[in-house]
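Look at one record.

>
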Amino acid sequence: MVEYLLPSFQKKILVDSIQLIPKAQGKALRIRSFSISDDRKKVLIYTNSKKVWRRDTRGDYWIYETSEKSLKQLGKGRPSSSLMFAKISPDGTKAAYVSQHNLYVENLATHAIVRLTKDGTTRLINGTFDWVYEEEFDCRDGFRWSADSKRIAYWQIDATKIRNFLLIDNTDSLYSFTIPVEYPKVGESPSPARIGVVDIATAKTSWIKLPGDPGQHYIPRMEWAANSAEVILERLNRKQNEATVFLCNARTGTSKPIYSEQSNTWIDVKSTWSDDPAGWEWINGGRHFLWVSEKDGWRHIYRIGRDGKETKITRGNYDIISLKAIDQKNGLAYFIASPENATRQYLYAISLNGNREPQLLSPAAQKGTHTYKISPGATYSTHYFSNIRGQWMADLISLPNHYTLATSGKSDGVNTGLPAVEMFQVTTDDQVTMDGWMIKPKNFDSTKRYPVLFQVYAEPAATTVKDVAGAAGTFLYDGDIAADGYIQISLDGRGTPAPKGAAWRKAIYRKIGIVNIRDQAMAAKKILNWKFVDTSRIAVWGWSGGGSTTLNLLFQYPDIYKTGIAIAPVTNQLLYDNVYQERYMGLPRENREDYIKGSPISYAKNLKGNLLVIHGTGDDNVHYQGTEMLINELVKYGKDFRMMSYPNRTHSISEGEGTTRHLSRLFTSYLNEHSPGGGR
């Protein structure tokens, strides 16, 4: 571990690898990540990590004492790779962690361990989250130290009433067996969540008291309220169109609402506008905090007082894309935005009192996407710029002047070997203007007609059109798709999370599978008028929500799309999880017909073209169940199609020797067979 002092770049070795060799082991720990205590006397090392659903969030933790040069493992006696989210207390004397859904605290001098919760089970979860909170709210680390190191505030998720969805493993033993996943499907009530504050000295928990039914609400955010006496949290109602901020007494558990907002669609959570869903943006010594809302039609930053009074910091007909950092010393907030071009992003600074126009900090001449990782205190930042043309630069900068301290590399985009990408816009007959990218075939001849392969996603979770290196292309194709004579195109329509205002993003409310599908099809109709497009060879493909979009396009607009490859699709919206689908579609007991109208399975009888469906049977996210239901529907109507299932593979279809290569070759051969490349 090496430390560099900025801006001089003076190098200091903090820990040598030889110091990280545990006794009775012959090699140093393989570091997954590490953190340093506030007093800089202890290094917390995370190693031997294992996946929990999506990420490596459980493993082993070790403490290295810099003064004693000693290395000791935390959680002695706990199962291997069972510790989660270990954190050193602010005073540096203790560490807390989760193991098997219980919270523990360990004295770093004596290494005595105290179990702070005792009721944790596979389904009663302390200090971390169930499947759906992790997947849809990006919540993983579920506990917070108080500043005085005397208490820990934590989530408890009661998933005992959530029904198991059973994944079936037919290949790893003589007899098949099931793998249960606590999965709340659409229409099922959420797991009740509550916040506890445990006293380290007594191991007793005080519960925060909130009004209403905890089984009909979510708590996606919770932190200490800039002191050790209060906790602040955000609660969403089940439909996720009402958000309330509560200030809570950590000792008594009493709570009072200090801020609320409502929407006729949905309200986004912090993971939508921040790199890290943890944390609360306190300013002015804890008297105010920053809040992000799109209640005026655009996503803007507000300053909220403890009394709920608000002041808008950013103004205008543009969206902030993300809030990056706060510079209290200079009274600035840093945010990402791109008022003129929704496919790009730049860093801006604005005063925390909101009395000045924002200042563009990213170099204006570098047209594309700028990303930053800003240091605590907002003094320095890494900066990476790139665009779809292959230009890029990486440097280390100081703030607020964006002065370059060191450059680690750059390219002017010439002679990169990358395909030439064109950014374009198309306006449909519905007067919807959509951004797109296109890669034409090599040796393109405008007098000939070429097949088009559309890449789609078209749902609220992601965009596909960005002016950033690597955004364009068909990564699954086995070979050089441009040399094989295909036009590649992707388009972002309404409902995608582009910074084009709330009306653009929220147009899809209760209309997934309708509005987004029409936008894609209407844009494709315009493209079919291009003289170099072969209308008989129009293909479309997508993964997850893109797989759903592929099916809907093929079924609802069979005269446009001739070939489709749908990977891990949601075929029936009534089968997906409640947090995601109810957020964007409402509660099925109130508007079930919208779910049916938007689901590809409702239109399977219209299939005319060529269809390949690909799914992993071990997909815990989009269940294979939906694909089997689609198969039944296609069979019922006598529709010919191709199907490939990958046993026990998850949503990524990446597990197992040869899987990625096999998937790529399957994708390519099917496309080549049914929509052959080349100009005619």
Notes: The chain has a mean pLDDT of 95. Helices lie at 131-137, 502-506, 515-527, 545-556, 578-585, 588-598, 624-636, 659-674. The longest strand covers residues 42-52.
